[in-house]
Design brief:
The complex is a heterodimer of chains A (279) and B (179). Chain A is of the alpha+beta class and 279 residues long. Chain A contains 8 helices and 10 strands. The termini of chain A are far apart. With 179 residues, chain B is α/β, with parallel strands linked by helices. Classes of the chains: A alpha+beta (279), B alpha/beta (179). Chain B: It comes from Methylomonas defluvii.
Chain lengths: 279, 179
């Protein structure tokens, strides 16, 4: 089945088997995500790609595209929720960007930039997590794992090895290695495996590859993730896109049914302090 | 002539790199001097912060004096800004959070290589260390955050010029960096 759906006022065509996020990405409309990856089975864990589809909340990476869907993605309330989700990811791990060799190439960091995340908002967990540097070619810094499951899926679905797994729940959740010792050196992973390269943060790193690209010349230093993630140039609503606009009245009605896109945002953001008259 | 806007700055558990970056606004300092004057800051050597319009806090909170200074700034500054990675998430000083405080002290003052006359410092003049380094927003309310290690001079300029003109500061996308 193929057809057209409407994302933030832009008519986006889709082809057979595409999810909303893939239809959007192919058309150049960026919906933030971390646990999704083109070519991988949908997983739906990070919730960053949450959108409103015909007024109902869904993850864009798991919901199949369907003809006539009205999708709201770039509304203030959804962007606000995405910022809060990203902040939670930062405080639950130990993400010190200045001391991370993935800085500038990190999807988590780039998504946070996209969300205009200037602070971490929540109290920090400073979780105690050990590093596994036992493998000669690959390093795991558990401090930076966001449990996106991409390495688990890559190892199982792409490499045919089943090296990784997620164990435990809640605060006790952790990435575990399928080896007799639990160490990476005793597992079947190889530096050529897709699982060694799929991590969206600096949790899984290939040794001796740091700083090959100097800071300032890394992926997201020159290009925002909204450009990098999309197949075509990024399209902003209202700009000439090559795709026709959808009916904005229908979009506005759909947004209104959900309390209006600004309602939550306006309720949670405090007014700016008044420098002239005190607070 | 309108009264000048008062700014106070301080470094808690930080390296003063953010202050260095602030000075990197270069000749714009002269323009800034037309409309602001400094209260407590490394430039003035004033010991306590008085009533101010803007307070810039660099560094995280690692000891009892940091808590005291931070609360003094909050009580005196209409607008308080967390400046840089250490103030926002603890930064590099927070890397000690993964070790016991006792182990840190023993390594630094007693068991470390090259330590002469080993002893844990103990003097009423010395502020007590907290068990963990904390970001400033966990101690007091913060109004604005300047990310970066350090934030670039342009970030300082964007924030200060906006606040001086009575605008809500916003950061252009290309200036948002955490490293």
């Amino acid at each position: 089945m193929s057809g057209t759906l409407c994302i933030d006022g832009i008519a986006v065509p889709f082809s057979d088997g595409q999810t909303i996020i893939e239809a959007a990405r192919t058309a150049g409309v960026y919906i933030p995500y971390l646990c999704h990856r083109p070519g991988y089975a949908p997983y739906g864990s990070c919730k960053l790609c949450t959108v409103k589809v015909n007024g109902r909340t869904n993850t864009a990476c798991t919901l199949p595209a369907a003809d006539g869907q009205t999708v709201i993605s770039n509304s203030p309330d959804l962007q606000h929720d995405r910022q809060r989700i990203t902040q939670m990811l930062f405080v639950e791990g130990n993400h010190f960007c200045p001391s991370c060799e993935k800085s500038g190439n990190c999807q988590l960091q780039a998504v946070a930039y996209h969300q205009n995340m200037l602070d971490n908002h929540y109290p920090h967990f400073y979780a105690q997590r050990e590093m596994d540097a036992s493998h000669p070619d690959i390093l795991i810094d558990h401090d930076r794992c966001i449990f996106c499951n991409l390495c688990v899926r890559a190892s199982k679905e792409k490499d045919g090895k089943d090296v990784f797994g997620i164990a435990g729940r809640g605060i006790h959740k952790r990435l575990v290695i399928n080896s007799p010792s639990g160490k990476l050196k005793d597992s079947e992973i190889s530096v050529d495996d897709e699982a060694a390269h799929v991590c969206p943060t600096g949790a899984i790193l290939v040794k001796r590859s740091a700083y090959l690209a100097p800071i300032g010349e890394r992926i997201y230093d020159g290009h925002p993730i909204s450009e990098v993630a999309c197949e075509k140039a990024v399209i902003k609503a209202g700009e000439a896109s090559g795709y026709p606009s959808c009916d904005p009245t229908k979009l506005a009605e759909s947004a209104q049914q959900n309390g209006g896109p600004d309602s939550h945002y306006a309720a949670t953001m405090p007014p700016a302090p008044d420098i002239k008259h005190g607070r | 002539m309108a009264a000048k806007i008062k700014i106070a700055t301080t470094s808690l558990a930080g390296c003063f790199g953010c202050h260095m970056s602030f000075l990197d606004i270069d000749e714009r300092l002269l323009k800034l001097a037309d409309s602001v004057e400094f209260d407590r800051s490394p430039l003035t050597d004033i010991e306590h912060c008085g009533p101010c319009d803007i307070g810039l806090i660099e560094g995280g909170v690692c000891n009892s004096e940091n808590v005291h200074v931070l609360r003094e700034f909050r009580a005196n500054c209409k607008i308080l800004i967390a400046v840089g990675a250490c103030a926002i998430n603890g930064g590099l000083p927070a890397l000690r959070n993964f070790f016991k405080l006792e182990d840190c002290l023993l390594e630094a003052y007693q068991d470390g290589i090259g330590v002469d006359n080993p002893q844990i410092p103990s003097d009423p003049e010395l502020p007590l260390l907290l068990d963990k380094v904390r970001p400033v927003h966990e101690i007091v309310k913060i109004d604005y955050f300047m990310p970066g290690c350090p934030p670039s001079a342009d970030v300082f300029w964007h924030y200060l010029s906006a606040l001086i003109e009575g605008r809500d500061p916003t950061l252009p996308y290309e200036l948002v960096h955490y490293d």
